[in-house]
Amino acid sequence: NLVVYKVDDKNGAEFLAGAKFKIMSGNEYVTASKQADGTYIYTSADEVGTEFVTGDSGSFEVDYLPTGSYKLIETGAPEGYIISQTEKAFTIANANESVTVGNALIRTDLKLTMTDKYGKLLSGVGFEMRTAGGYVKASGSNGAYTFTGLGEQSEATKCVTDANGVFTIKDIVM
Questions:
Q1: Whole-angstrom distance, CA of residue 131 vs CA of residue 136
Q2: How far apart, in whole angstroms, are the C-alpha atoms of residue 101 and residue 111?
Q3: Tens of pLDDT along 4-39?
Q4: pLDDT at 174 exceeding the cut of 70
Q5: Which of 45, 94, 105, 170 is exposed most, by the fewest CB atoms within 10 A?
Q6: Contact 2, 9 (CB under 8 A)
């Protein structure tokens, strides 16, 4: 059988549900039937194939995949992650094989300029940021910060604008 694991590329112990894959065998895609327990059983290969989806455990399993060479292609990334553009080649040579694929979180830089209602730049304004996943933790000071993670409100970083009313945070997770 084949087990495919989907993990966060920075934390290989964080398994990701909802990743979608196709498996190529030569010029065709693997087709399998999904069982009640969430595993897939190989049935054939054709032009369309099955879209395999990682479950709550961040993995999926395909039983009775014939020995040979295959390519794993990600067709959909978990929410908040960048889809992998790299096909992962693997070989089924033994009864049990596994493949692990990492995904990077979507990150960006954020720059805010604080002004009053008349357009005057506001320096030294302090605030905390919150996302759906929690409160923003960051390192830095005086308007220049780098995202370090999310946490509880008690762990939130109080960010402060610089002398020009500007606040920048690098590598924030979207």
A1: 7
A2: 32
A3: 999 988 888 889 999 999 999 999 999 999 999 989
A4: no
A5: 94
A6: no
Contact 161, 167 (CB under 8 A): yes
Tally of residues, the chain: 174
Which letter does DSSP use for residue 80 in this model? T
Rounded Cα–Cα distance for residues 111 and 170 (Å): 9
Q: CA–CA separation, 95 vs 118, rounded Å?
A: 70
Place of tokens 């080649």: 89
**Longest CA–CA separation in the chain, Å:** 71
Left if phi > 0, otherwise alpha if psi is -120 to 50, otherwise beta: which for 73? beta
Rg (Cα) of the chain, in Å, rounded? 22
Determine the residue type at 146. T
The answer to whether the CB of 90 falls within 8 A of the CB of 116 is no
Going by the DSSP 8-state scheme, the letter that residue 125 receives in this structure is: -
* Residue showing tokens 């992650």: 81
d(CA 8, CA 105) in angstroms, rounded, equals: 8
pTM for the complete prediction? Answer: 0.70
